């Protein structure tokens, strides 16, 4: 048997009703486009006949394997064990229950094989993606999880997706500590990757059987986010650290703006004798200009700057200017409402206002002014 082009990992726990259909469908999709793929079922000792069904199908499909686990039960742990056991350089992960459309697998495969991506992610939250028939509670939980995930990987719209493909090298010796349901977060947080592509898909809730997601799974997820964040502090080649570096630089530039602003306000008022509000206007505009130059050259400059979506420096400046004025309005509105309506001491309200305006400035400029 020659080497496989792709290993499809299917984690299973009590999937008797789905397993045969998903295996047949996956092989059919690969055969149709001439991809040599193996399927690796990673089962957590199901007692409903899943294992026996796979064993039975092995006589029909030469490239079907199963690992039965007896310890450390869990979806992420199973997928991670599948990574170690996969015989191909490209690995796809897909649920057994048809929540993820197998028809898209060739697209994932090509993104990695031909497109030069390290990771291909099925996204429910990008344009063209969707979720069908999910109860409201599940949608809310998922949106919350995605929000935390995006703080660690702002470029990825669905960092908690269970439908993705990777180059095996991404996770080789990456020291994954898989827990809970969000194995992709672990891969993105600790794996070695540069380029990720997202592919929109519609998540269909399972028709047969039930989700095994529990409260403890959500607690595991929060621990996992903290762990990935801590990992990034000590491992500076991770995507999360690269992002945080931008936030830190943006903060330093913001602080330098305060110095410029204060110096001009004082000089123009005290030494040139301008009315202090006129000096303040000049000070604000000057600090916007110096902040722009520093952010354009330093925070968002360097190697990636050739990829800025807004090519003209004047247009980037115009965008930064508008966002900065928005930031001032937000700062003022927060200061006024916290002081007037909640009776909070105005210096405290102002600090909160500055913080909210900082987040606004960073997020909007990051995604619009300097979006690469
Ligand atoms: N080996 C193993 N061990 N497999 C498991 C386990 C486990 O403890 N728990 C679940 N699975 C398998 C199921 O048999 C199925 O193939 C797949 O993992 C997904 O299980 P579900 O329980 O149906 O997951 P879900 O629909 O709640 O969650 C899916 O969507 C999430 C996105 O919101 C999964 O794809 C998650 O990975 C994904 O994050």
In short:
With 372 residues, this protein is α/β, with parallel strands linked by helices.
Task: Please tell me about this protein's structure.
- The strands form 2 sheets. The chain has a 7-stranded mixed β-sheet with strand order 3-2-1-4-7-5-8, with helices on both faces.
- The longest helix is centred in the last third of the chain and has 32 residues, at 239-270.
- With 372 residues, it is α/β, with parallel strands linked by helices.
- Helix 7 packs parallel to helix 8 (215-234), helix 9 (239-270) packs antiparallel against helix 10 and helix 10 packs across helix 11.
- It has helices at residues 16-33, 50-57, 75-85, 105-113, 136-152, 168-171, 183-190, 215-234, 239-270, 276-299, 313-342, 346-369, and strands at residues 6-12, 37-43, 64-68, 90-93, 119-123, 130-132, 164-167, 196-200, 202-204.
- Strand 2, helix 2 (50-57) and strand 3 (64-68) form a beta-alpha-beta unit.
- The model has no long low-confidence stretch (mean pLDDT 92).
- The chain is built from 12 helices and 9 strands.
- Residues 11-13, 15, 42-44, 73-75, 78, 95-97, 99, 142, 160, 162, 181-182, 206, 211-213 line the site of guanosine-5'-diphosphate-alpha-D-mannose.
